[in-house]
Each structure stands twice: as C-alpha cells, then as structure tokens.
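Hi! If you just cloned this repository, the fastest way to understand the data is to look at a raw example. We've pasted two of them here, unedited. The first protein comes first, obviously.
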Amino acid sequence: MSVTKRYPNQERYINLLTDFGFKRLFGTEPNKEILIDFLNVMLPPQHAVKDVSYRNNENLGNTPLDRKAIFDIYCESQTGEKFIVELQKAKQNYFKDRSVYYATFPIQEQALKGEWNYKLSPVYTIGILDFIFDDHKKDSTLLHTVELKNQKNKVFYDKLKFIYVELPKFTKTVEELESHFEKWLFLLRHLSELDAPPEALQEVIFEQLFEVSEIANFSALEQEAYENSLKYYRDLQNVVATSRQEGVEEGIAQGMEQGIAQGMEQGRQEERLQSIERQRSLILKLLSRKLGDIPDPLQIQITQLSLTSLEALGETLFDFENEEDLKQWLNRELRIEN
C-alpha cells in the first residue's frame, strides 16, 4: 500500500487505536450507526443489531473496597443484549481474567429486587487487541469466539460470549480486501496512514467514518485532546518495544549464566529491584501522559505498593479518566494490603 501524505506534519485521519479515536468513532450518539455496523460484522448473523442505546461505562462494585470497572464502550441493543467493546493496546498478564471480571457487571446489574426468576439478557464482550495472546503465537486465526461448553464440546450457556480480534495478525493490503469484516480490520490498523478513501472502502458507512475521523473537522479542543491521546499511545508502544527488547536481552544473559549461578543471588536480587524501579518509572510516565502531572502524595503512595499491586496498577491505569480515579484506586489498594 503506497500512501502519499496530504499533510506533511500530520495525518489526515485519526489513529483508531488511540483512546480518543476509538471512543470518538464508537462511543458517541451521532456515530452510533458506525458502532452498529461494527457490531454486526463481529456477531453471527442471527444476532444482528438494529439499534443501540449507550449505557454508563463506569460500573462500581457493591462495597467501597470493590474495584470499579470502566468500559471503553458499553451499550445495549433494542432487544436487551449488553455489549462491552474494549480496545486493548498492550498485552496484560491477566487480560482474560479482566475480561471475565468486567463481564460480571452487566450480569449483576440485571438483578431485580424482590422476587426474580433469574432470567438474564445476553452479554457480549468484544475485544480489539493490538497484541497476540501468548498461546496463539503459532495460530493464524485472528477472530476468536469463546463461550461456555461442557466436556462434550456442546454449548452449556449461550448468553455469555467473548469475541476477540488479534489485529497484528491482519496483514492484508487494501487491494486484497475481500469482505466487510476485512475492511473494518484494515481501517482499524491503517486509517491514519491514508490520504484519501481508497476505492475499495467507498461504502456509505465508511463515508461517514472518514468524515468523522478527519482531523481538520475537529475543534481546537478536540485536536488538543487527540494529540495528547496520540502521544500517550506512542509512549505506550515505546514502552512495549523496550520491554520486549529487555526481555530478549535478559533471556540471552540468563542463558549465558547457566551453570555459574553460585554467588550470583545478590546480583539477581539487585537486578530484580532495578526492574521494579524501571516498572514504577514507566507506570508514572504513562500516568503523567494520561492524567497530567502526578502530585507528590500520589507518587509516594505508588512507591508503597507491593509488587503485585504495582503490576495491577500497570494493568488498570488504562482505565483511569482523571486524577481522582487514580487516588481512589490507590486508597482502596493500600487499605486492602494493610
């Protein structure tokens, strides 16, 4: 795919893998036809969606100590199905666990006071992943549908589904696109690289997509918000690339050190402490990029976190919308630890 930039210092269209880009396209009422089209391309034909209503994307636990969940997009179809649509830009150790945990909120909120027969509406989690699951490295399949089955591989419960797309596995050029689904994946990966809508993507729904994604149509505040979101996304990609390189180098070093471990325990302990400090510094950098300058009291709280809680913060920071979210999370976490 050859692309000539119209704007020398700026793309014409937004990057849909930024928080701003993803939520602008899928999370606003004027663009819900785009969301409906995307949902229908991800779902089986028998589950076609005709209309959606947006729901509050912030869900609180039942007690003050419970963690809260902040979904990227949370909506409900005209027939009652609940949809969580999540963009995951970097690998997380317990992403599958997090997906299951998040799915419990739309289930719990269906509970009725008084007598209730426990009938539930279906809940779908759709994850757009900018990474590949470790256990899928050798599998070329990029679309995964997960549901509860019994030992005979028969569906036990058909109202809870997880649908994941591993974007890095999609490598087709615009000339090779064959289906509406593939066109969507191409746009998710390459919209910001385009100078104009290619002929293969000149459909009515995509015309609307290109229009709402054109940076020139943004207000000054929207452009500033997008630039901040883009910087955050690029910082995150740099962190991922650095961590990957450090992992390779560490693996090589460990291989060389096999058989000469005696007397090295102290050095390994120091290395672990340095690794924790690097992780803490990276987390603070990402938090600052997303929320602005982090006050000293909150930075001190972060230094008091255990390694487990620090890893949890690294997985949760993508959900914070403001400094107050971070403050509440730290207070809950430190109360739990103590």
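Ok, and the second one:
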Amino acid sequence: MEVIKVIPSGYCKGVINAINKVKKAIKDYPDKQIYILGMLVHNKYVVGGFELFNVITLADKNKTKEQLLDEIDDGVVVFTAHGIDPKIKQKALDKGLIVVDATCCDVTKNANLCIQHLNEGYDVAYIGKKNHPESEAVLALDERIHLITNIQDVQNSNILNDKILITNQTTMSINDIEQIIKALLVKYPLAKVVEEICSATRTRQQAVKELEGFDTLIVVGDPNSNNTTQLANIGKQAKIKNIYKIENSLELTSINLDNISKVAVTSGASTPGYLTQQVIDYLKTRDEKYLNVDLEKILDL
C-alpha cells in the first residue's frame, strides 16, 4: 500500500492562535478557573487535552451562549475561534470576567465586512450552515443578515433591499458556495459578491480536488467539524472510490485495508497533527503501538 499525506492539512493559523491563547491564559492566570464558551475548535480531543489543565469547556446544544455564560460567576472566559456575538462579549465584561477572545482573524475580517456593508445600507445574504457557531455569531450582528444554507433557501428568500452583499461562512465548500452564489445572482442580479472562504480551507480543498490515481481517501477529523466534512465531500466530487471519515487511528481497525493500493490521508483544520500522524504510521506499518490516543500530545503544535 502506498500512503501519501496530503499537503496542506491539519491545523490552520486560526486554530493555532486559539490553542496558544488558551495556553497563555493557563500561564497568566494560574489561580483562576478558565472556561471556554463552546468548543474552542471542533475537535473533542483538543477539548480533552485542555481538560488535563483543568480548563472547563461549556458546550450544550440545548443552551444558548448567553445561558452558558450565566453559569460563570468568576474567572476567565475564552471565546472560541468561530467568533462571538458582541452582546455576549460585553455581558462577560460587565460581569467582571477576564475575557480572552480567540476568534480567528479570518472570521473577524468576515464579520467586519458584514458590519461595513450594513452601515452602508446593505442587506447581507450569508451562505452558511444552520446552528454553526460561526454563522450564529454573524447572524447575531443584525436582523438584516439572512442565512442561506442551500438553493431552496435562495428560492424562498425575499430580500427587498436593492443593495445586497453576498458572502459566506469561511469553512464552506468551494463547490457548494459557487452553486448558491449563481442562484442568488439569478434572483438578485445587482448583488455584490465577496467570497470569504479562508485560505486554509481553500488550499486544503484544492489539494484534495487535485488528487489523481488514488483509490482511497482518509479524512481525519471531528464529526462536528464543517471543514472536515467538506474535505470528504470534495473527495466524492473528485470521484475517489473509497472515502473514510475517521476521528483517530483506532477506527482503522474497522476498515478492510487489504484491498487498498494507494491511499491519501488529509485532515481538517482543527485536527491535531499527532492524530493524523498516528493514522499514517499505522497505515504504513500496521504496528498496533499507533492504535492509541495520548491526550498529553494533542496540544503539541
């Protein structure tokens, strides 16, 4: 079996920045309890790595960010790489909490783009995933931001403003947003388009799109990671025969590897490099020593 690691893959600059900010908070506030409001990045092993340092992640799909914030009375609160509603951030400051904002710079750039156009009288058609924390943070900015998740949403939309900005969640699939943008421009031909797929997402997707001669693609990442899911989707569109989404090397034991001749391994932007390397090493050696997850190595950058 020939095993190739797709380049680039793994941690993006936004994830590295978020992890480093929490590491710094651990050093700067040794006597304070540190809370992360939601998953810092979409990978449960990163959450587990920080639990070793007594960092508490508050994540409950049945509670809003504000409700989760209400559970914190003192200490340090970290806002995740996906962005945060400015009203929530202000509430944390009003409560006297120490605030660490780990929002990705690309997400901030996208939010500022929306704010700028709102101030200029635009409505925003925002292409994103429902209930994703990045899209939730942007939608919280103004009711004139309209979430578009698919072509059906385009058909059902009724934006009356002549000034419309079309933009998107930074981790969307290149192929998916192209189709939605085309549909929006048919309905709103005068709309302004500013595509905001981040460079890390774009280059990782393009690398998978260009794979040739591979019968198998393995994507390492968390099930909740949108960019991981999109890498698998791009693989399907590239007509790769076998595609497996796994969280770690242990899941390789449930895959029949004997009939694979050439496999490419990639990983989402929030996947620790250690987990990806464990997968590659096992595929190359079949040595069971690589069938484990050591949380102490998860936060290595």
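That's it. A detail worth noticing about the second one: The chain has three domains: 2-11+199-297, 13-103, 106-193.
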